Amino acid sequence: MTLVITSACVDVKDGICTTSCPVDCIYEGERMYYIHPTECIECGMCESICPVDAIRYDDEVAPEEQAYVDLNVAAFRNADGEVVEPGGWTRKNPPVADPPELAKLV
Questions:
Q1: How far apart are the first and last CA of the chain?
Q2: Predicted model pTM
Q3: Residues 26, 7: Cα–Cα separation, whole Å
Q4: How many CB atoms lie within 10 A of CB 20?
């Protein structure tokens, strides 16, 4: 079970969730934030602090939001389809490219 960020974050990007993450697994994207699926330790700190209620455990995501489970993983796939592990986000990093699927969802 991992945490994912859903549609409520698109074009909001408050970012307070990044301040509560003890392992820096929440990465800024161009239009929303993404939680890295293997770096996340599933502590739930981000879920409790999100001001737009966009963060859920993947098994609690509403049916209409299921595409965001895959989207959070897609944000970290390289050209070969492998999930890359950047090793932690900082504000100095450029935004992660939004997966093309995001444009289809919003």
A1: 25
A2: 0.94
A3: 15
A4: 15
